[in-house]
Amino acid sequence: MRRAIYPGSFDPVTFGHLDIIRRASKIVDELVVGVLNNNSKTPLFSVENRVKMLEEVVRDIPNVKVMSFEGLLVDFAKKIDAQIIVRGLRAVTDFEYELQMSQTNSILDDNIDTIFFTTSLEYAYLSSSTVREAAFYGADISRFVPESVVNQVYERLKDKGEKNE
């Protein structure tokens, strides 16, 4: 079985993430969306909330599974028997960083390969941080994230007492 992992923080999941998930799921038997629990960052949503949001928006893709993880990506890949890491590229700056990570992961475990998907043009500008900033200032984020995520972002900002006019 050809299993891949698409790791990220997904804070929140965007249409750009979903685009990569849908495309990657077509070339593997199983795609695991790995939600990183990174203790050095303060995400808008807890890892449990991010997993639930993702499960909701990928429920129509039968070979996609969502799991959280901590620590090194290659260790998680080994644990779930994934041979492929999927990464999305929006710009040249993404490529430089992702190439370094891919090479590092290859040194840590030469049985795991990384494949890159270039982001569809309609989502090339999009990032979770852009969504959070737009929502912070009260902008309409419905063109950036799935409908089920929109209100959760606004509510979470309100709960944290952050600007959202």
Automatic annotation (TrEMBL):
GO cellular component: a single term: cytoplasm
SUPFAM superfamilies associated with the record: Nucleotidylyl transferase
Binding site for substrate: S9, K41, L73, R87
Cofactor: Mg(2+)
Binding site for ATP: S9, F10, H17, G88, L89, R90, E98, Y123, A124, Y125, L126, S127, S128, S129
Marked site positions, Transition state stabilizer: H17
Enzyme Commission number(s) of this protein: 2.7.7.3
Keyword RNA-binding: no
Main location as per UniProt: cytoplasm
Domain Cytidyltransferase-like residue range list: 5-133
Keywords attached to this entry: ATP-binding, Coenzyme A biosynthesis, Cytoplasm, Magnesium, Nucleotide-binding, Nucleotidyltransferase, Transferase
CDD domains in the cross-refs: PPAT (cd02163)
Catalytic reaction annotation: (R)-4'-phosphopantetheine + ATP + H(+) = 3'-dephospho-CoA + diphosphate
GO molecular function: ATP binding; pantetheine-phosphate adenylyltransferase activity
Record-level GO BP terms: coenzyme A biosynthetic process
Biological pathway: Cofactor biosynthesis; coenzyme A biosynthesis; CoA from (R)-pantothenate: step 4/5
Location within or outside the cell: Cytoplasm
Matching Pfam families: CTP_transf_like (PF01467)
Gene3D superfamilies assigned: HUPs
Oligomeric and partner information: Homohexamer.
Main function: Reversibly transfers an adenylyl group from ATP to 4'-phosphopantetheine, yielding dephospho-CoA (dPCoA) and pyrophosphate.
Family: Belongs to the bacterial CoaD family.
Protein's recorded name: Phosphopantetheine adenylyltransferase
Biological classification of the source: Bacteria, Bacillati, Bacillota, Clostridia, Eubacteriales
